[in-house]
Amino acid sequence: MTMSNTGGRRKPPTIHDVAREAGVSRGTVSRVLNGGHYVSPSAQEAVNAAIRRTGYVVNRHARSLITGRSDSIGFLLTEPQERFFEDPNFNVLLRGCTQALAAHDVPLLLMLAGTEDERRRITRYITAGHVDGVLLVSSHSGDPVAEELREAGVPLVACGKPIGLGSRVSYVAADDRDGARDMVAHLLSLGRRRVGTVTGPLDTPGGVERLAGYREVLSEAGVEADDRLVVSGDYSRASGEAAAERLLEQAPDVDAVFVASDLMAQGVLTALHRAGRRVPEDVAVGGFDDSPAATASSPALTTIRQPWDRISAEMVRVLLAEIGGEDPAAVILPTELVRREST
Amino acid sequence: MTMSNTGGRRKPPTIHDVAREAGVSRGTVSRVLNGGHYVSPSAQEAVNAAIRRTGYVVNRHARSLITGRSDSIGFLLTEPQERFFEDPNFNVLLRGCTQALAAHDVPLLLMLAGTEDERRRITRYITAGHVDGVLLVSSHSGDPVAEELREAGVPLVACGKPIGLGSRVSYVAADDRDGARDMVAHLLSLGRRRVGTVTGPLDTPGGVERLAGYREVLSEAGVEADDRLVVSGDYSRASGEAAAERLLEQAPDVDAVFVASDLMAQGVLTALHRAGRRVPEDVAVGGFDDSPAATASSPALTTIRQPWDRISAEMVRVLLAEIGGEDPAAVILPTELVRREST
DNA sequence: TTCTCTACTGTGAACGCTCACAGAAGCGCC
DNA sequence: GGCGCTTCTGTGAGCGTTCACAGTAGAGAA
Question: Please, which pLDDT band fits residue B114 given cuts at 50, 70 and 90?
């Protein structure tokens, strides 16, 4: 009989204990643990029973030491963190990645690199092989960390197309341009002709692509382009409010606004309200993200839903594939127009 | 000269390489790595130089294998995750813990235990010693995971006082009762006498304590208690809205409401607005949390600020102390009344 | 029979580190 | 000189696993 798998909390059982218990050798237990190839059914059975009886759990440190793999992956955020942690999409992403990895029994290490110091420390940590791969969230271009990791050959999947890097880095992104096109087309279909836009930061792929989609549709529809209808924000609520004020000043006849994020759209609504413009009667407002902010604001925002659940799942899938030796890949996922009260 | 600490990305340098490079033994390098006791200044110097030259980074797996420590800690969330991930406080907490741990060079493993299956797997993972300690976020009582971990002797710090468990588990919490007292006293000081409350779930410490604070102050002020003024919610926006409707029905003469969370308070504002009550003229509304929702809503919410930055820092401090062998501890941190437009 | 092939099993050696121990060197004190 | 003490250093062992290799046994083919 085995002793104490519940009571005496001394040393945890090792592969050796399991082997003795099952009447086989370490090697056989190890083989069972790693897929069970070249193991007789009877041995298989005996080992599994022994594992259950002893409460054995593999020591990942010992395993990692010899395999060189760490069997864990990092979730790296290289941004001023306040902004991201306030972004509901970020949370969906983080949760989705954690869950998707958990399904593969891979723990996720959360790493924040806000300051230059942290950046250095974390890069060292990663390149030292403490994680097998990295899920990177860093919208801005020219991120030195991404470049370093890529050069060091660390498997890497970015969320959103990294602007600065070459094509040899994997990424998963929603189809920003197409989403923007859908929204602007929707605004035009309502009969609006003075359609403005509040862009995101133009050193982010999202900012650039959404603006491009906006311009494309207007030009295809033969609507006159007017630079006074284009103002920039930084995805924050406050910047949306400021942008809307600028927009009203530059183009008082604006009758619709495509805002590149829901958070900014909230700010836009506030500014419009203060200016006495009714939404959607006077000005139709379209957001982007379908964040909780979209339903929280009044009127509820028509917006573009990004498939964050699929994005996180795809990021994990691509990263695991890359760790498994496959080549980098880019995945673009479709967006969806969600119509609510603001248009 | 050393070869390839940047170019040839073969095997990372080991403690052996550093020792050879520095002209000392493995033991001396190890001692330098672990605090530098019993090491001569000259050796110290030589080793540090060699580390810099070779780009050596300690292999934590090898270290963990022998020390038995994993030098990582888990952040465990045992809740239906949607709710928590949408809670801005949760994000501040997660970020704070990650940063506080990073300062100690300890990586944080994010673990979500939503389903029964995940719960089992994660409990196994933790009790197998893959993390040195756990930061637990689980507001509801009777959490089996917490109990199991406690029994297994895993160092544990909860966020908020765990109701079900004995006193032998550490926790860090804001002073809910005192915060509630401050808010209700504030409402009374405005001359309100029909002060209602929307409570949180009453199987959470926050829910219970905040209600207790509310009752204490009313009774101390000699204001007549009235059960029609007390309704319950579940911290969600929607539940706040429903609660406010019930409240208006049961006690139409209500002139102030203490709501146990900002999110619920948003719902309360919506319901009051719909019912044609002005805030704060007809009904003063006080929230709890000082979340972004507090400034996002209009009118901006008077609320109670919980010191989440300090809470996370204290959780980490207490956990590291407990891992270091100290006894469990409870830390209660003061809250702060933030006055805005809703009162 | 003998040889080969397949399916399975056991046995050292690592992996990179820390720990315990044994020593060496220096110093002061009897 | 002998002894003890402190400070410093090197060495072997071993943490729990996987991997490469060397077997063993049984089946089928020559």
Answer: confident
As a whole number, the mean pLDDT across chain B is 89
Confidence of residue A7 (pLDDT cuts 50, 70, 90): very low
Please give the order of strands across the beta sheet that includes B284-286. Answer: B230-232, B195-199, B256-259, B284-286
Cis peptide before B205 (omega within 30 of 0): no
Chain A within 8 Å of B99 (Cβ-Cβ)? yes
Check if A70 contacts B (Cβ < 8 Å). yes
- Chain centroid to Cα A2, Å, comes to 46
Least Cα distance to A172 among A307, A79, A291, A263 occurs for A307
Residues with Cβ within 8 Å of residue A142, at least 6 apart in sequence: A163, A164, A203
Take residue A292 and report the two structure tokens written for it.
């909780």
Distance CA A200, CA A214 (A): 12
Q: What are phi and psi of A163, to 5 degrees?
A: -70, -50
Interface test mutation site (partner A, options B10, B61, B291, max chain A beta carbons within 10 A): B61
Domain boundaries, chain A: 15-58, 73-175+309-334, 176-305
Residues of chain B neighbouring A292 (CB-CB closer than 8 A): 86
**Exposed, middle or buried by CB within 10 Å (0-12, 13-18, 19+), for A33?**
middle
Amino acid at B146: A
| Bridge partners for B136 per DSSP | B76, B158
What is the C-alpha to C-alpha distance for residues A179 and A337, in angstroms, rounded to an integer? 7
Topology of the domain comprising A73-175+309-334: Rossmann fold (3.40.50)
Nearest to A271 by CA among A285, A253, A261: A285
Smallest CA-to-CA distance from B184 within B171, B204, B172, B199 is with B199
Is A15-58 in CATH node 1.10.260.40?
A: yes
Between CA A131 and CA B98 the distance in angstroms is: 17
Mean pLDDT, range B28-45, rounded to an integer: 92
- How much is the pTM? 0.87
In the block, which residue shows the tokens 């059975």? Answer: A45
- Tell which CATH classification among 2.60.40.10, 3.30.70.260, 3.40.50.2300, 3.40.190.150 matches the domain A176-305: 3.40.50.2300
Fold of B73-174+309-334: Rossmann fold (3.40.50)
Domains A73-175+309-334 and A176-305 share a fold: yes
Contact present, B246 and B196 (Cβ < 8 Å): no
Whether A102 and B118 lie within 8 Å, measured CB to CB: yes
- Which residues contact residue A45 at a Cβ distance below 8 angstroms, ignoring those fewer than 6 apart? none
CA–C1' nearest nucleotide, residue A31: D18
Residue B8: the pLDDT is 36
